[in-house]
Design goal:
This protein has a six-stranded mixed β-sheet with strand order 1-5-6-4-3-2. It is about 35% helix and about 15% strand. The protein has helices at about 5-10, 40-55, 60-65, 75-80, 90-95, 145-155, 190-195, 200-220, 275-280, 285-300, 320, 345-360, 360-365, 385-390; strands at about 85, 105-110, 115-120, 130-135, 165-170, 175-180, 185, 225, 235-240, 245, 255, 265, 285, 370, 375. It has two domains: about 75-180, Phosphorylase Kinase, domain 1, CATH 3.30.200.20; about 185-375, Transferase(Phosphotransferase), domain 1. It has about 400 residues and is an alpha+beta fold. β9 (about 235-240) and β10 (about 245) form a beta hairpin. α8 (about 200-220) packs antiparallel against α10 (about 285-300) and α10 packs antiparallel against α12 (about 345-360). It contains 14 helices and 15 strands. It comes from Oryza brachyantha (malo sina). It holds the Pfam family PK_Tyr_Ser-Thr. It is an enzyme of class 2 (transferase).
Length: about 400
Amino acid sequence: MAKQAWSSLFGCFTSQHHYDGCGKRKKGGGGKKKKKTTTKKKVAAATGQGQQQRKLQSRLSFSDLSFGGMVSPEDLSLSLAGSNLHVFTIAELRSVTRDFSMTNFIGEGGFGPVYKGYVDDKLKPGLRAQPVAVKLLDLEGTQGHNEWLTEVIFLGQLRHPHLVKLIGYCYEDEYRLLVYEFMTRGSLEKHLFKKYAASLPWSTRLKIAIGAAKGLSFLHEAEKPVIYRDFKTSNILLDSDFKAKLSDFGLAKDGPEDDETHVSTRVMGTQGYAAPEYIMTGHLTAKSDVYGFGVVLLELLTGRKSVDKNRPPREQNLVEWARPYLTDARRLDRVMDRNLAGQYPTRAAQKAAALAHRCLCPVLIKRCRIAGKFNPDISGVGSNWSVKRLLN
């Protein structure tokens, strides 16, 4: 995402030595001229962009590989040649996780259990010594081979600072495993909602929101766009510096191509995060991800879950409860997380709330089929609406 686009909206969220609490730029330290970029650096940057474009243009799609039935381990390995993914055996992964010992157990989701391990070049030549997270597909869980294959295809080819890095996989007999870089601080969900977790300060929350949005922007603006489809707090992982990275690509889809306005698909996702228009029509676009981003941003602002059955009836659905307050500066403090104890810039909170409101705009909910045909521009927002477009 262009830095200018981010600074135009998130300017008052930056570090305090540049901005005061009201969002006004402080005097001093801003008058220095930037050094001119050398010709060599410009050429290198242009070359890097060209290589990235070529890489995205040649990206293998899920439909390219899955068409025609089951994919063999050999076909998958050949198809992903050059992706730098390591192919592990089940014996190797048993070894690095101490035979999937409970002492190495990290957690479990719809895909299956996750274990911590440690790999180095003794296991695979050229493999950097590092801790890893090994995710084992539960054959009786809610996800299956296709979701596993989807994740291998997407994360095996896409690289970005705000996407979790897939190191390799295991495809042996009935075993389906994924090996990722280990994210020290776990999921955003754990830090926001666990009873005994320390409250995240304002600056950290905005750092996480911006990082996650940059990951989404990268997916939406790829030469072959990707719709993430499962943007939520449990899928945003954090490293030791609270850098946010998107994980779990099992539900991701290739975006619409050419003149198509959407992808028609079976409605999938998580209650509370899925866009109403997607639920009503089954028409998937980048706007579905933008809605999910709005929900997560709202969770960061309020410290509340998207759906919480333990709250009073009118407060159980976070979007319905908080949306009326998001554009009212006088009442916004009613929904802000009490754990912040008022320690946030007022103007910054108002801007973040306004952004969340735009992502969750009621117009999207009212959108419907007109004359039997879905109209993607009924709200005046084009079908290519993305996070970057929203922030411009």
